[in-house]
Amino acid sequence: MTSRLPALLLAASLLGAGAAPAVEQAPAGAGLQVDPLTGPRSRLPRDWIGRSRVAPDTPILVMAGHADSQNVAGPGTRGEAVALRGAAPMYRGITDELYWNIVVAEEVVRLGRQRGLTIEYHQPPFRNIRDGDAPGTNWSAGAAHAARGGYALEIHFDAYGPDGVGSGLIPAMHRPFTLIDESLARSFGGYPMGFRQVLGGPRRGISLLEVGKLEGRLEASLRDPALRASTVRTIASRIVDALEVGLGRRSAPTALTSPPRTVGSVPPASDPRASSGGE
User: Fold this and answer.
1) CB 214 within 8 A of CB 279
2) Is 76 domain-assigned?
3) How many domains does the chain have?
4) Is residue 135 part of a domain?
5) Exposed/middle/buried for 257, CB within 10 Å: 0-12, 13-18, 19+?
6) Model confidence pLDDT, tens digit, residues 88-103
7) Closest by Cα among 99, 104, 56, 86 to 209
8) At residue 112, what are phi and psi to the nearest 5 degrees?
9) In whole angstroms, how far apart are CA 106 and each of 1, 48, 112, 129, 240?
10) Please, which residues have CB within 8 angstroms of residue 118's CB and are 6 or more apart in sequence?
11) Model's pTM, two decimal places?
12) Are the C-beta atoms of 223 and 87 separated by less than 8 Å?
């Protein structure tokens, strides 16, 4: 399979049917347990604070989660609409999660460049690379970028139903947590630093952002041609806003040095699965 969705398909997904109505957006730094657009946030206790400052021109690499793992282990969630309601996939041959990961990641890069960020998008050469550390994969590209001092961010949508946890940042583990990590966590929520015994991406220096569970209002807004463009732009704008705050390029809506707010936890025996490890 080719490494990129057809350009016209992506354009159509963003344009929708004419002018897109606005979608409801949560106030930045609101600390909501359920966001009006992206749904429930992770209720797992966040046990880290991002305090390390980064240069305003730090290069950012954005990747679409599961872009190199289709038709192999860990392709990402199909989403509630496809898996439970019989809807057709957004694009044949890939999971709906990957489809939306790509659309959002590319919009983040487009908007970030428009705002003057040093930001790039990585697309793997193939969709089904069995060795996650092979040249060109998200893991290898992200690890190399992080080793050079850049910030690597992989976009995900979480699993639907009880397998999903909710929106939030799973931070990279290769260096002290940064103000970028903290800003993204304040906008989307945060996961524990050792979530699932530390996932492959964070072990390699890649922060994983779960935008939200691919279900309910969020998925319906993405699939609705009349709401699609504004939904994608709202999500991408929230991500870029958080990046700008973390880079020190704009003022934070709330102080970034106060302790994180723990809003709950799950029983120790449970094993919540983020879409970053499969469906």
Assistant:
1) no
2) yes
3) 1
4) yes
5) exposed
6) 999 999 999 999 999 9
7) 104
8) -60, -45
9) 19, 29, 10, 21, 12
10) 57, 58, 59, 60
11) 0.82
12) yes
